[in-house]
Design goal:
Blueprint (H helix, E strand, L loop, with lengths): L1 H21 L11 H4 L13 H22 L2
C-alpha cells in the first residue's frame, strides 16, 4: 500500500514539474522605435513662394521633435 501511495505522489509531483517547466513566459512586446512615433518632415518646396511656409513647417517639426525627445529622456 505504501508503494502505491509513493507512486501516486511521485506521479503527481512529476506531472506538476512537467507542466511548470514547460510553461513559457509571455512574450516581451517590442520597444517602439523613436522614428516610428515621429511624423514625417515637411516636403521641400520647389517654388520660391512656398519657402516661407516651409520655414514655418520645419520649425514646428523640429520643435515637436525636441519636445518629444525631452519627454522620452530620463
Amino acid at each position: 500500500m505504501r508503494m502505491v501511495l509513493l507512486l501516486v505522489v511521485v506521479a503527481v509531483i512529476g506531472l506538476t514539474l512537467v507542466k511548470w517547466l514547460s510553461h513559457s513566459p509571455p512574450p516581451i512586446p517590442p520597444e517602439p522605435s523613436r522614428q516610428a512615433a515621429t511624423r514625417e518632415p515637411p516636403q521641400v518646396p520647389t517654388r520660391p513662394q512656398d519657402l516661407k511656409q516651409f520655414e514655418q513647417d520645419i520649425n514646428h517639426f523640429m520643435q515637436d521633435a525636441a519636445k518629444q525627445r525631452g519627454r522620452e529622456a530620463p
